[in-house]
Structure formats: C-alpha cells, structure tokens
Design goal:
Order of helices and strands: EEEEEEEEEEEEEEEEEEEE
Number of strands: 20
Helix content: under 10%
Structural class: mainly beta
Strand order of the largest sheet: 1-8-9-5-11-12
Low-confidence stretches: 1-19
C-alpha cells in the first residue's frame, strides 16, 4: 500500500453520540454548521462533491470561518483504512463571499490515519473523536490564517470510485475542538484493515515565570532512545480495497492480507526555545530551552499477502536510523492575560518501514 503523506498508525472510526440534529444528504452538495455552546455559528463545513480526474476521483470540501476567534489549526475527516492510495491539496484563503474559488493545487501536509486524541469534542457533538485523513498544515505557503469572514477549499484524490456516506469530522482551533458530520468515501470491504494503536503523543511543558515561547515546532530539539521490543506476531487477516487488472479488465476488489504487530517502548526529551518576557528582568546570554520528558509505547503494523513466507515475519527491528520523532504542533498554554506560559507538544513516533514495503520508483 502506498499512502502519499506521512504514515501514522491509528484506530479508525469515531466515538459516536446520539443522532445529530443537522441531517446530511450525500446525494448532493451539503453543509454542516459547527456551533458553540450557545448555538452561535463558528464554522461551516461543506461537501462540494466528487469529480472524476486523470488520477482517479477528487473529493472537494470547503470550510468557512463564520465567527470563531481562533483560526483553524487542522481538521480530520473520518476515513477507514481500506484505501490504497491518496493525494491531498490545500487551497488559498479567500473572502467568504468569493464566488470563483479555484480548485486547490498546493500539495497538503496530510497525515493518514491520524487524529487529535488530546482535544476531544464535547459529548453533545455527534462525535467526540475522529480518526482518518488529517489536513495538518493549512497554510503551506505562509498565507494568512482562516479567520472570521474567510473561506478555504480542500481536496483529496483516491483511485477508487466509491459511494459517499455520512462520516464524522473534527475541527481544531486554538485549544478547542468541535465535531460534526459530512460526506466521505465509504469503505466497501467487510473486514477493512485497521491499525490498532495510536502513535501520536503529547508532552506538556511549563515555562519559568519570566519566560515565554521563543520559536515554533521547527525550532524544538528532540532526542530519544528505544527500549524493549516485542516479538513480531501475526494477529489475523483483513481486507484492503485495490484496483487489479484481469485480462485488460480493471476491477475493484477487497484483497485479503495477513496483519502483523510489534510493540516497542521509547523515551523522548524535547527542548523548547524560550525567551525572556519584556520587563521581566531575566538575564540570558545564550539560547535558553525548557525541557519536556515523555515515554510511551509505539506500535508497528505490517501486512503480507496470504501464504507469503518470503518475509516472515515482516517487522523490522527499530533503531535510530529507521525511526523518527516528529513534532507536529505546539499548542500554547496561556494565563488569564493571554501570556504564553507553556506549551503542549504534539508529536508522532514514525515506525520503521516493513521489510516487504514497496517503494515507488
């Protein structure tokens, strides 16, 4: 399977609550309005439709900021794990009343499968958490943020021609998340392949009284070590949707594969750049960092064809050369005056490629 984006392991599906009062019709373009606790509109998410393109089928969406004071940080569309390939695109920012918004052409920084596990939606939303395709960097060309009165389009392309069904989505803005329902591709396999654990983590760090944040996630320094590694064991079979050619006839089939699992512990330390607050009296001569330590267990899932013993087992021993800790975001922790007094470091542990993974080119 070739996923065009950063591959992260995650549990599929959302945590569903009672039926939502905003019905979604997937036979036509449809919208969902995200509300605050006082039923004031914050964002509108619109499913624009599906368009056949050379690479497959393009699913188009648009998000408009109605009155949310915090700009959109990222959003997740619930997708199951039976897709064999995807590309995603992020559009420019336009005024909300703009009528001629072009199709996005800038490749997006997308994660699949991924989520916002530490920012759940209220239990009154139709979902409390969503796992699927995460549009993580919404301004790849350093354009303005999606603020009130602005709108932005998003697209992704999959090779399969799939029906649309109602699925959950999650918007994250500031330290808040809100969930709703919109149309998304429906996985047609009875036993779709899923990844069982989450390799996304967070680490909270508080700054000394006279310091504040002095950089972005790109400036955070990372060091980690790998601990105990479990055996690679086969834990059943599942299905992945793929297009195969039989005698010049293209078919979409749910192909059965074997699923393997391996766990390993890790410890990580982050150094976050900080700077003195103006007028604080702090005296520094060299760059200063706040330290955050964390530990966890990462999961590697691998898959093999039924009956294939050429790479048995397919898991690869993790080491410093084939793993990576990637900082995916910094969420500020503010005091009552709005001063940043700490951050929540969002990061992912990228596991080794499987021994049988096919690389393009």
């Amino acid at each position: 399977m070739n996923f065009k984006g950063k591959k992260l392991k995650q549990v599929f599906g959302g945590s569903h609550c009672p039926p939502d009062p905003q019905p979604v019709d997937c036979t036509a373009p449809s919208s969902y309005t995200v509300l605050d606790s006082m039923t004031n509109p914050l964002y509108v998410v619109t499913f624009l439709g599906v368009v056949p393109v050379t690479e497959g089928y393009r699913w188009d969406y648009q998000i408009t900021n109605i009155n949310a004071q915090n700009a959109l940080s990222n959003w997740v569309l619930e997708l199951e794990g039976c897709f064999s390939d995807f590309e995603c695109f992020v559009g420019d920012i336009f005024p909300a009343d703009e009528m001629n918004i072009p199709v996005p052409t800038t490749p997006g920084d997308c994660l699949f499968p991924s989520s916002n596990p530490n920012f759940p939606c209220p239990i009154t939303d139709p979902c409390t958490s969503v796992v699927g395709l995460k549009f993580d960097n919404l301004n790849p060309q350093n354009q303005p943020e999606l603020k009130p009165g602005k709108t932005q389009r998003f697209s992704f392309i999959i090779p399969e021609n799939l029906p649309a069904e109602v699925a959950c989505f999650q918007l994250k803005f500031g330290t808040m998340s809100r969930c709703g329902e919109i149309c998304a591709p429906a996985c047609v396999c009875d036993n779709p392949c899923i990844c069982e654990e989450d390799n996304n983590f967070t680490c909270d760090v508080m700054f000394p009284d006279c310091f504040t944040l002095g950089g972005t996630e790109e400036d955070v320094r990372v060091a980690y070590c790998i601990g105990e590694v479990s055996e690679c064991v086969m834990d059943g079979t599942c299905e992945v949707l793929d297009t195969i050619n039989v005698c010049n006839t293209n078919l979409q089939c749910c192909v059965p594969v074997q699923r393997w699992r391996q766990e390993f512990d890790f410890q990580v330390i982050f150094n976050v750049p900080i700077i003195p607050l103006l007028g604080s009296g702090a005296c520094v001569e060299e760059p200063v960092f706040a330290c955050c330590q964390d530990e966890g267990t990462a999961i590697q899932n691998c898959f093999t064809c039924i009956g294939d013993t050429s790479v048995d087992p397919p898991c690869v021993e993790p080491d410093c050369e084939n793993t990576e800790v990637v900082v995916t975001g910094l969420t500020p922790i503010e005091d009552r005056t709005g001063t940043i007094i700490g951050v929540t470091i969002e990061y992912s542990f990228v596991t080794p490629p499987c021994a049988n993974e096919v690389v393009d080119g």
